[in-house]
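User: Hey, quick favor. My workstation is busy. Could you predict this chain's structure for me?
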Amino acid sequence: MSMKYRVVLGSAVALLALSGCNEKETTQPAPASAPVASAPAISKDDVAATVNGTPISKKQLDQIMLQQASQGMPDNPETRKLVIDNLAMQLLVAQEAVSKGLDKTPEVTEQIEMTRQSILANAFIRDYTKTASVTEEALKAEYDKFKAQSGGNQFKARHILVEKEDEAKEIIAKLKKDAKAFDGLAKSKSKDPGSKGKGGDLGWFDARNMVPEFSAAVAKLEKGKFTEEPVKSQFGYHVIILDDTRPVTVPSFEELKPGLTQQLQQQNLKKLLDDIKAKAKIDITPTPAPIAASAPAVSAAPASATATPAAPADAAKK
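Assistant: No problem, here it is.
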């Protein structure tokens, strides 16, 4: 049940993710002496248990149970008692640590400070996500940008991939005599394992997701036509036939609004954090270069006893 330490200022996206999960995590007991050092006041109605006069709150228990439920643990009296027992034991051991003065040791105080900073940073992020608004105008501008990038057509095509240009030309010659032979030629000749068994069928795709040479060739084809010259790409030579086209269906603004809102929040948060960092004075103490240890003397031995054969060049490349 110990607190998970987080590096919270790495990126805006990571921080937004942390703000969600840390609502659960930061309510768990802090390391060692933290519960004893400054336990907050809790009303009697909110007490789930008391350990040597120190309360464990119902809210804390409820939030831990919620987190455990997401991992498959049932929320029932037995599991609640188990969680309380664990919290109580942690609190008892923490009290023993304080009685020994361990909460004053440099290592523990540093860990407590790290936890405090993590909690405060995540509190800042949660507060930002609750209070920072994204305007409707900004959302619609982002949606228009998405639509512009996502517009155009999707294609349904088949292809035959071979290694040599002459092979592709032979296939094209056969297709000029009988275009219906495409399926059989793909199954027998194509080097593309993903589409070969399906007669070269690639299904529906956005040409922008294909290599440029393939995309350009597909865009020029008419429905039912095939490429009369081999299309060279990094994979080999393609013979392509276009089966159909259709316009790309872009989701509505309302469908994308939640995702766009989160995206803009992330962008705005990153800008805010960058501004905070830019105004700060951060001095990093140079780390001295490690002193190389002198190698121990090794007595000479016959080459046949100590030498290891060199690995083949091909193996090194792998």
